[in-house]
Amino acid sequence: MSATGRLPVAVLALAFAVYVGWAVVPASVLYTDWLGPHRLLAIAAGFKLAYLLAGAAWAFACRDRLEPGNPARPAWFLLSLGLALTFAGQLSLAPFQIVLGETPFPSPGDIFYVLAYPFLIAALLVLLKAYRDAGLPMGSLAGRMLLLAGVAAVAVLILRPVAATPGPLLDRTLTIAYPVLDLILLVPLVLLLRIALQLRKSRAGEVWLLLLSGFVFLCVGDICFAYFQSLGQEHLDPFVHATFILAYGLIAGGANRQFHLLES
Q1: 84-122: pLDDT as tens digits
Q2: Which of 23, 110, 166, 253 could tie 238 with a disulfide, CB 3.0–4.6 Å?
Q3: d(Cα 185, Cα 177) in Å, to the nearest integer?
Q4: Ramachandran region of residue 167, left (φ > 0), alpha (ψ -120 to 50) or beta?
Q5: Residues 104, 109, 113, CA angle at the centre, nearest 5°?
């Protein structure tokens, strides 16, 4: 990896470490005197906006550089739409986070976040179909059934305390909707990760490992958010910020790698 390629990786790693540190040692001088919750929230908003905008632009550029009829072309378009909607959701939250130092929930941003999921799920399904049509192994029927059973078990484990949380109907609906949508996203995601691991020594494999790892952290971030909300553990929000920054950064990095691969 060139020096210019290492710099974005170092920036992402540093940002992730800063927010994990905020969760682990919030009373340290770095977080009480130098940065502070308001400033950290504003910086996190900036990172998320930058990565989402870059990811959406690069995903659309990848779609633009694939010839019509390429089975992966619609997937990149769907991915760009999903990331653009997520960017719109984060953009609607940014004034609250940057100016007021708070993250309201629910907020208008939730409309865009929820609308993004069908496009992200569809993108993964289109990619899965393209790989299947190309003859890559999808695993046995028993393996896929085991995956569905595992997702169902995780759903019960996570959704039980979330569903039991008291509060306004809209709050509870959204708190349940996010992990449900993430668990749906996980099914094609796990199958695609299996394929990406088989291709990991190739440049295409690196692209998909970055992208799909980003989606994994996206699911983890949403599920943690819902779980922490249900348990009243809002002080763990820095972990959520760290996870989303890492997720968006990895997805943007994967789209950027694919763009350069298509350009070469």
Answers
A1: 999 999 999 999 999 988 888 888 899 999 999 999 999
A2: 23
A3: 12
A4: left
A5: 125
What DSSP letter does each residue of 203-235 carry, written as one string? HHHHHHHHHHHHHHHHHHHHHHHHHHHHHT-GG
> CA dihedral defined by 141, 146, 150, 155, rounded to 10 degrees?
50
Does residue 177 have a pLDDT over 70? yes
Within 10 A of 52 (CB to CB), how many other CB atoms are there? 27
User: Can you read off the two tokens belonging to residue 59?
Assistant: 């995903």
Please state, in angstroms and rounded to a whole number, the distance separating the CA atoms of residues 246 and 52: 11
Model pLDDT, residue 5: 60
**CB 48 within 8 Å of CB 221:** no
21-25-31 Cα angle (round to 5): 75
Q: Do 75 and 59 form a contact (C-beta atoms < 8 A)?
A: no
User: Tokens standing for 43?
Assistant: 């910086």
Q: Could you tell me if 110 and 178 are in contact, meaning their C-beta atoms sit under 8 angstroms apart?
A: no
pLDDT of 175 higher than 90: no
Q: Would you tell me how many other CB atoms lie within 10 Å of the CB of residue 16?
A: 18
